[in-house]
């Protein structure tokens, strides 16, 4: 009886050691996010947190959005991100529960025969749960760390998606202006062709060609306007805006091209060491390894419960004692659970290796895409656009000298 009391007392003490952290593990998530995006992320648990976020969003929307302010709005206001961050609280609850002994079981039985009554009472404690609680707590801690990395990965992914959506929205907004200029030129050319045809100075075929270009320019403008709307709405969804907030302002044009491209410095090594999907895969493998150790520890003893029991009969003194419940490994000696755990561990190892290999490859591919885009943009800025301007100026001189027609001049302006 004294031993059982000592076991119960020690289990209550150990259960009391497992408790929730003050920040819910979120400080690490915010730190990981800020290292990679320059912006921190907050978990909005109370109404005061949400009001503070809304006030900051309203302040940012008073000015035309920049890429940085758009990311800040998204991290503050995207409700889908807040829903994903809720997984962190679930993971912490599982972690705390893993560090606590399962509740004891109470049994009660009553039998009556004639004038006698037999009553059985018992309290059972999961002894294996107590002996393996330390290992189970470590497994729970690993999974909680996984949830932290996953939450940070969700925030970083949202920030990256928001940046892309922001630049797409600004670019297509600017393209609409260009297509409007093309349509205005096509409109003028089409109207002039109609009048010259009526005056007998133009043939029908050339007039229809001008009309066809005008129709094509009108269709291009409509498609550009829809694309601008679609890109703006995609950005709106990332920002989590609704109501009057959707009238946010964007800058008139894209920023200037940087003077020099960014050069990679140990990009592959940095990706393997700091990419959150790689770190998450590593933590998953470590957690699986811990689970394998736990499975081996309880391979032959799956359920072992010990507890206090008493029995009383009518007119007889109460009998006290204890009860042990043990699952006997007659048909399954735990080999199936051990084999499953080992297969799961090797699966996690191979997936981690795959993620690391893919990360290195994706870094090389991403830099190639970035450098190609930069070089093409600089080529257009320094070569193509200045050349087209000189051609346009030369054609204007030729038109003033009556060497080309107004339609050739308008066609050059359209291009």
Extract low-pLDDT stretches.
Answer: 297-306
Radius of gyration: 36 Å
Average pLDDT score: 81
Strand order of the largest sheet: 1-2-3-4
Order of helices and strands: HHHHHEEHHHHHEEHH
Euclidean distance between termini CA atoms:
96 Å
Number of discrete helical segments: 12
DSSP E strands, number: 4
What spatial form do the alpha-carbon principal axes imply? elongated
Q: Give the biggest beta sheet.
A: 4 strands, antiparallel
* Alpha-beta classification: alpha+beta
Which range does the strand content fall in?
Answer: 5-15%
Helix content: 55-70%
Key phrases:
12 helices; alpha+beta; elongated; 4 strands; 415 residues
Task: Explain briefly what this protein structure is.
The protein has 12 helices and 4 strands; from the N terminus they run H-H-H-H-H-E-E-H-H-H-H-H-E-E-H-H. With 415 residues, it is of the alpha+beta class. Helix 2 packs parallel to helix 7 (133-198), helix 7 (133-198) runs antiparallel to helix 8 (204-239) and helix 7 (133-198) runs antiparallel to helix 12 (406-414).
Which secondary structure elements does this structure contain, and how are they paired or packed?
Layout: H1 2-17, H2 26-37, H3 47-61, H4 67-77, H5 79-98, E1 105-113, E2 116-126, H6 127-131, H7 133-198, H8 204-239, H9 267-274, H10 276-297, E3 304-313, E4 319-326, H11 335-400, H12 406-414
Antiparallel strand pairs: 1-2, 2-3, 3-4
Helix pairs in contact: 2-7, 3-4, 4-7, 5-7, 7-8, 7-10, 7-12, 9-11, 10-11, 11-12
